[in-house]
Amino acid sequence: MRPVTLIRPGCLDYSQSWGMMRHYAAERSAGRGDDTLIILQHPPTITLGNKARPEHILAPPEVLAARGIALVQTDRGGDVTYHAPGQIVGYPILKLSQHGGDIGRYVRNIEEVIIRTLAEFALVGQRIPGLTGVWVQDGRAKICAIGVKLSAAGVTSHGFALNVNPDLHGFAQIIPCGIGERGVTSLQALLGYPVTPDQVEPILLHHFAMLFEVSLLEPVAAPLNAEGISL
Asked: Is-contact 109 211, C-beta < 8 A?
């Protein structure tokens, strides 16, 4: 099984994590090091993908700033999404040629990791033709958003955000992924009892390792930011 370096920096500012992601993606694109999986949480942040439309943000920037919500334009695919504590955010940095070589298949595999994780809680995760992510309640609500980027060297970055127990009111400030007719939910809301990312994360990592046929190894040294400085 191929080794994948597992980095878990905790709750990290989006800009810091993006710098970390770019560092490891650049190293992997240059043929240095192994694949990497960054698992973390973010403080309240709205991110815009390369297909984002301004009208999908329902609060003006000054209101978001007053509420302590960062607004970040990114280089991932997709529209607008929201991050907050209580999500498991995953950024796989993988050489795609070693994982099937097909970006569509890669996204479906990420969805499958989430679907298998939900099944451990007796929940049915679903795909919707033409849309990306994982849905529940017969497609009425999204529980996991996915947005990825593929470098010229064929290395993936960005990834997924699984709602475990975030404050769902934060999603009311956007039209999530530009889809107004469907809702957003969380694992805790569906189960009706408390559940935390710490409880769900080992299950998710197990299914990631099994589906991608990799071995997740945590490094001894601290992770690095975009400038190669330890965090």
From this structure: yes
Residue 54, pLDDT score: 86
Two structure tokens written together for 38: 């960054």
Is 144 a catalytic site residue?
Answer: no
According to the 3-state scheme, what is the secondary structure of 61-94?
Answer: HHHHHHCCCEEEECCCCCCEEEECECEEEEEEEC
pLDDT tens-digit readout, 41-71? 999 999 998 888 889 999 999 999 999 999 9
Q: Which residue has the tokens 């940095």?
A: 93
Largest CA distance in the chain: 49
Catalytic residue (one of 177, 200, 205, 214): 177
**Residue with tokens 């400038």, as numbered in its chain:** 227
- What are the pLDDT digits (tens) for 79-128? 999 999 999 999 999 999 999 999 999 999 999 999 999 999 999 999 99
Residues in the chain: 231
| Ranges of H-type helices in 14-149 | 14-29, 61-66, 103-119
CATH class name, domain 2-217: alpha beta
Q: Kindly report the number of other CB atoms within 10 A of residue 198's CB atom.
A: 9
- Token pair of 57 as six digits: 């943000």
pTM tops 0.85: yes
Domain borders along the chain are 2-217
